[in-house]
Amino acid sequence: MTSVKESIPRPEYPRPQMVRSEWMNLNGEWEFEIDHGKSGKHRNLFEAAALKEKIRVPFCPESKLSGIEYKDFMAAVWYRREIEIPAEWKGSRILVHFGAVDYETEVWVNGISAGTHRGGYASFSIEITHLLQAGVNVLTVCAEDDQRSGLQPRGKQSGLYHSHGCDYTRTTGIWQTVWLESVPEQYIQSFKLTPDCENQALHVEGEFSGADGLTFSVEAQFGGKMVGLQSAVVNGKQARLTVKLSESHLWEIGSPKLYDLTLSIQNNGKVIDSAESYFGLRSVKWDNNAILINGKPVFQRLVLDQGFYPEGIYTAPTDEDLKRDIELSMSLGFNGARLHEKVFEARFLYWADQLGYIVWGEHANWGLDITNARGLQQFLPEWIEIVKRDYNSPALVGWCPFNETWDGPQGARQNDEVLRITYQVTKSLDATRPVIDTSGNFHVITDIFDVHDYEQNPEKFAQNYEAMRTGGERYVTFQNRQKYEGQPYFVSEYGGIWWNPGQADQKSWGYGDRPKTEEEFLSRYEGLTLALLENPYICAFCYTQLYDVEQEVNGLLTYDRQQKFDPEIIRRMNSTIAAIEKQTVDTVK
């Protein structure tokens, strides 16, 4: 017999960095309706007794798993579901959470607007306590989405009817878990965790609702043993404290030691609200040549991960699929990923934290016109939400808000101030991680200098970086638009080698000419990769890509995550000791 939990898609707790016991998963069957004319608000669909179809949340209507599988553009979509609040939640405040909804969202409860949100990738919540009634309540959601407007980030969602090149099937509306949460009148809203390896401590900043004058307490445990405890009084809506740790256990790549946390607010010793969390004690620093993890130069062997799934599109069918993608990547010798042109869900970062797999956080900037200041207006508010949500992840080692910011229509140049301001705001939110202003081109202000290089001939590819091997001039693409200024050097996209020998038609896509044999592929892969690993002035690479996505067939895995090659061969190549790592070994000797 199937349990209720098993019948709900994606039943796991959706916010692993801040866990409370009182919650309700709203995934599963909802009523649904496509609103091509974007007239539903005028027709009062938020008061409708029913919608026309059924959809399986959290899967987007374009996906097979949603039960809709409608692939054309949808100007707006509507969702409706009846909910009943558990009796034991009486007297509590009720929040409705959305992992992500693409793009502009409005939420109604019992026909009354509860709130709005703009942005297709950031998580958000709305309090609905005041709109609830006894018995059955109706929750209605409308999402408006226009990927072709130039006014919203769409990432790799195709702006044409068909998928093409490196753009794929679109995602409209809800694509992450929807859930209810019961919190007390006075509660913890959020917290920021900053590990301090040098002082063996954790700095904590909390934000609260209605908790002025209460005691904020944080307890750290390792292996079930308490290793730190500190308290502070809430001043207005905030409190800060530092937890000194009696034991030091570093979070390392491939060896992710994690501390458990209990955070609470108390009134005269009585716990009013509490949440469970975790953190990793690790540092990220950078000098002229390397990015240091816990003070040691570690070559970042990254792979490009697009976050697409054959049946779920933007949404992994199961939590296990998120974990498995990381495990597959690690089996190939990669120690991390660029989470590319998409903000991955919090559960992916959870598994990266648990498995010791480093990641770079990006936004899905493609589709957004940044040739004028309006691009910043559309981009920055959601980017701030993203940075705040993912700040606590020890696996996250850098930020890259933009990717390949090409000039706009009719030759209009990117607005450099959009990149500069976004970089500065990101640094003000997070001074602990490096920030790349825009990956590949065109750099304005950046902590790490990165390039994209899809040269397929290993000899020509290596020649691009030959002068660097002895400390000479760095290879700079688009020299008329960007300048190297002594930063660590990162080849953040390379490879992209086609390999789909079983395909008879010509609908596939990749970079350069296709290898004719598996041996030719592996020889090319090795030549390109070793040219980077063996260069003492290169600190990281990112291979394109982990798996095929639809017509783009340059993955090391197929779209359904089958190995194309003996993974041990790829792992052995990727695991070659890098020049910057040899320097450390030689110093130790």
Explain what the structure shows.
It is a single chain. The protein has 589 residues and is of the alpha+beta class. The strands form 9 sheets. It has a 7-stranded parallel beta sheet with strand order 28-27-26-25-33-32-31, with helices on one face. Strands 3-2-4-10-7-8 form a 6-stranded antiparallel beta sheet, with no helix packed on it.
Summarize the structure.
The protein has 589 residues and is of the alpha+beta class. It is globular and about 70 Å long.
Counting DSSP E segments of at least 2 residues, the number of strands comes to 33
Poorly predicted sequence stretches spanning 5 or more consecutive residues: 1-6, 585-589
**Oligomeric category:** single chain
Total helices: the number is: 9
Radius of gyration: 24 Å
Which strand order does the major sheet show? Answer: 28-27-26-25-33-32-31
Main β-sheet, in a few words?
A: 7 strands, parallel
The amount of beta strand, in percent, is: 25-35%
Class by alpha and beta content: alpha+beta
Q: What's the helical proportion of residues?
A: 10-25%
Give the N-to-C terminal Cα separation: 61 Å
Give the averaged pLDDT, no decimals: 95
Overall 3D form = globular
